[in-house]
Amino acid sequence: MRLVLLGVLLATGAGVPSAQAQTAQGDVSVTIYNDNLALVQDTRQMAIPAGRSRQEFPDVSGQIRSETVSFAASGTAIVEQNFDYDLLSPSQLMQKAIGQTVTIVRVNPATGAETREAAKILATNGGVVMQIGNRIEVLRDDGLPVRVIFDKVPPNLRARPTLSVTIQSGSAGSRPATLTYLTPGIGWKADYVTLFDEAAGKIDAQGWITLTNTTGTNFTNADVVMVAGTPNFTQADPYNQYNQYRPQPSPVRRAGTESGSRERLGDYYLYPLAERTTIANAQTKQVSFLDVEGAPASKGYEFRVEWGQNMDQPQSAYSVIKFSNSSRAGLGDQLPAGTVRAYMRDARGQPQFIGESAIPHTPMGSELAIRTGEAFDVKVKSTLAKRERILSSEWVRTARMRINSSRTGTEIVTVDQNLQYWRTTMSYTLTNARPVPVTVDLVQAGLDNWYHDTRVPSESVAGVQRSADERLYRVTVPANGEITVTAVFDTRY
Amino acid sequence: MRSVCVVFLALAASTGAAGQQRVLSPRPEAVSVTVYRDPERAADRLLDRDWLGGYALISETRTIDLPAGPSEIRFEGVADSLLPASVIVSGLPQQPAEKNYDARLLSPGGLIDAFLGQQVHIRRTHKKTGRVTESEAIVRSGPNGIVLQTAAGFEALKCSGLSEALLYPKIPDGLSDKPTLSLRTTSAAPARTTVRLSYLATQFDWQANYIAMVNSGGRSLDLFAWLTLANANDASFPEAQTQAVAGTPNREQSDYDPVRSVSPTIQLQCWPSDDTSDIRNPPPYPPPPPAAERDGGDEGESIVVTAARAPAPAMVAAQEDLGDLKLYRIPEPVTVAANAQKQVALLTKNKVPFERVHTLPVDPSETTDGPHPVSIMIRMKNTKARGLGVPLPSGKVAVFETVTGRSMLAGEPQLEDKAVGELVELEIGESPDVTYELTETWEGESNDDGDPFRRYQLRLINARAKSAAVEVALAVPHNVRLTKPSRRLGTKNGYPLWLVTVPANKSIALEYQVEPIRLKNEDDEYED
User: Fold this and answer.
1) Would the CB atoms of B262 and A216 count as touching at under 8 Å?
2) Contacts of A13 (CB under 8 A, 6+ apart)
3) For residues B474 and B362, is the Cβ–Cβ distance under 8 A?
4) If one looks up domain B354-382+422-516 in CATH, what number appears?
5) Model pTM?
6) What HEC string does B504-528 produce?
7) Are A65 and A260 in contact (CB under 8 A)?
8) Could B57 and A353 be called an inter-chain contact, meaning their C-beta atoms sit closer than 8 Å?
9) How far is B271 from chain A (nearest CA, A)?
10) What is the DSSP string of A275-293?
11) Residue A273 and residue A223: Cα distance in Å, rounded?
């Protein structure tokens, strides 16, 4: 086993001419979009005769979207474009041979002696029925070895789907011809490695472009550019939409307003690769685009309580790393969509993984908050302490504590005695088993439920109404301690 | 083994296809493995050794001799489940220009695919006489049904009933025995450098397995925990610094590897035929090895029994904080073997006082059609003063009690991640001797505003020779309230709670009414 392996490696290492060295591709440039889609431009030198001719294009993407192909060569006009995907297989070969004569070679199982006969294929329904001389026979009905030899392969049966263009040319001669098409199977995303130093409040970040090719085709010595942004293409991969659903709040807390220095295509940023590269089939390739050390970062905790949530067990708050990608105090670059992986050094100084989070395309100058995971030591337990019905008069009395009282001027309040109003008292217990105080952003959600006039007559910590739906309490929990926050909500439901 | 390595290094001088020198790093000198739990696996589910849903961060130290100029470094001996997007390399003189992960594998399908349109050898062996005939052929289609062009004409492979095999002249470029991780970098001068390679890999998992031995007297227990970690990769990590991380780091769904599944497989097809219709090759991967113990429950118990008899462990994992997570470090390097499970002591705490209560969480309107058992709960406080005071990662707890000199399993409850200071409640089972019955006794209209109400009776029955303390938690829905309880109610977790002691061999009856919520201050039947 070891010897065989060694021999194999020697053979490859010694530079035996490659079986795959030749490609029909010419000067290839590939523009890769995020959503598993790429635009391939392939300029080949082609000898084009005068008049009408049919040109085949091998080595295009195995997943080419043939309806997007365009062809351009000087002095030529397109007659028609074809994409043939009738693939050569033994059964297709046999089906296309109906009515034709093939050679069958019977091999004597005892002696190995061969007898040849000509057979006419009559039908291939479930089994192959053929005529030999004046008898009708089913191929291999007796289970004995029979070779079937076909004289030719029908011209439209191909090993791979093949693109061909029939063109009309005014003159004969070799000239560059450019083929442009879209193909799924090539996509890219960004992967970020961030090393967070909690004590120093700093973060080191590396950004990598990760591109993958599953088209079945190598793109040799290609000029590659990645486009960050989401052009509205026909969804090539409907399953991709699945990944876009995220119940979590966006990691971009405030979108930035700074412009980067990178090349642009309209509103999209371009990430060209510095040198030509070969994108092999079944390959994942990573190229660096960002390397920043010591950007300021801080840690926080977040927890969101849904309406009326009564917990049996305390639940962990989310750990959040906050940083900016502004040019002054941050990573100083716009961030294409991808995954941010966070690492921290353990007691021996070795980086350890602490969690990851997906980010969308993030303009420069944004505030980011990456949820890395659930905190072991910081927990929240919410309790619905009391639920009561209140009088309409009390509802009117608490109107001055109305949350979204954006209207000005006089307002006539009609008091309807039949309406039901509810008073809900919530109690939140926050615990911290860490030896340092922590600050938790506690959000009570679900306040906007058809009616937009929820009121907060009392709360033990001053809350901030983030939206009609969410009220934020910023709570500092002492080291190895706990704190209880209560809040009363008056609602119509 | 050593000589093979030398040959590899000698190859380093050979020049690759793109004019760059190829450097091979066959294996790491030192490796560290940090295992993370399957985030989807609940605390009460044991790890499934056939399909491990957790992952690991693997950090390797490798020494590489870099030539001057551009070079390609190939890393061998990495975990097969490596996530290519997570690879980090540090310690090179220059940031690598690119990192590549090639998953075109040397396989029957990969060979056919690579030799499409090229010349191969076909060998036919006569089954009886053993006579071998060989001829040249060109592959015309594949790998889904192979058509060959021979001197005679066009033929299909393995449709004739003869024994036929294709022979290839060489290994095509770009096909490798395993997915290959490589990177391109440049060095100004030849240099021997130590790089650190780290990456995430799947097919790992770990869990805590607790054993609680109740001491005689039934007031305290000895708590022991195993750190059980498993590796379902084909790669072993010998003498690895090994850690496990407790807590729940976030993972994204997009973290899959799209290129892993694209390697072509051969599906031989022939023409329609009654007896030899479609010949299919065996699956490309061998089926998973049969598990020694199919039943996960047995596994947990067998761990438990050996542990229960063992003296204090010689090696216990050391715990440290890793941000908001907990890291457990196995103090000595250990071997994390391929397709193997390993256990190291996680913690030991002796004489932890606990309280045993009967609990009854009940919907106040859900009547029973006969006696139902109440739950038995063990309650501890995770503080130093109460004998614990350490983070407790989630896992199953096997609770043993000694009955007439024999150790018996009292229950196997689950434990969620518990921080220091938290209450630890373990529901060990149901009591056949302490039961309850809930019946509706009366239904009518209340006097004031015509709202309907219902009256219920909850009977607690104790068939034991000892009195039983029962905590009745009434999970009242938000739209109704509980009134006129026959005993004063407290609250717990936002629900009304009765603390009742049922005397030995007696039963007691409790009553309450359920009615719609009324106006505030009208009556306050229960308060904190």
Assistant:
1) yes
2) B11, B14, B22
3) yes
4) 2.60.40
5) 0.80
6) CCCEEEEEEEEEECCECCCCCCCCC
7) no
8) yes
9) 4
10) S-EEE-TTEEEEEEEEEEE
11) 7
